[in-house]
Amino acid sequence: MSADGSGQRNLTGNTGFDWFHTWSPDGQKIAFLRGGGGVAGRGYVMNADGTRQRNLKGDAFPDHGEPPSWSPDGRKIAFARGYPNSEVYIVNADGSGLRRLTRGPAADHSPVWSPALKK
Q1: How crowded is residue 99: how many other Cβ atoms within 10 Å of its Cβ?
Q2: Residue 41: which of 58, 24, 22 has the closest Cα?
Q3: How large is the C-alpha radius of gyration of the chain?
């Protein structure tokens, strides 16, 4: 939408609910969670104009209220998954290479990237 609130348009086309939209560092893509119908949040990435929506590894993204975090170079996305003892994962922006980074009895959540990784 425009800054004045006019020109609103639904980019995802979803009639359920999508939340925690985060822009890639270059502004070309948006990562977000989709839920509804008893389904926990599932991660998606789309182009900034709403095209090429793709699910990232089924239920790879969290099922508990945290936005995904883009790496500074826009190639990876970090997120926490699991409840109540969440763990931190990363996945390539194209959905490949899902990798768990933490393992432990306590909840690990809210991952952020070091700006030093930007190239």
Answers
A1: 10
A2: 58
A3: 15
104 vs 58: CA distance, rounded Å: 23
pLDDT < 70 positions in the chain: 15, 36-41, 57-65, 117-119
Kindly state the helix (H) or strand (E) to which residue 76 belongs, with its residue range: strand 76-81
pTM: 0.80
Q: What are 63-88's pLDDT values in tens digits?
A: 556 788 999 999 999 988 777 778 88
First to last CA, the chain: 31
Q: Which residue has the tokens 């996305």?
A: 77
CB atoms within 10 A of CB 68: 26
Q: Which amino acid would we find at residue 72?
A: P
Quick check: 117 and 71 in contact, CB under 8 A? yes
Q: What domains are there in the chain, each with its CATH number?
A: 17-111 (2.120.10.30)
| Site of tokens 């763990």 | 87
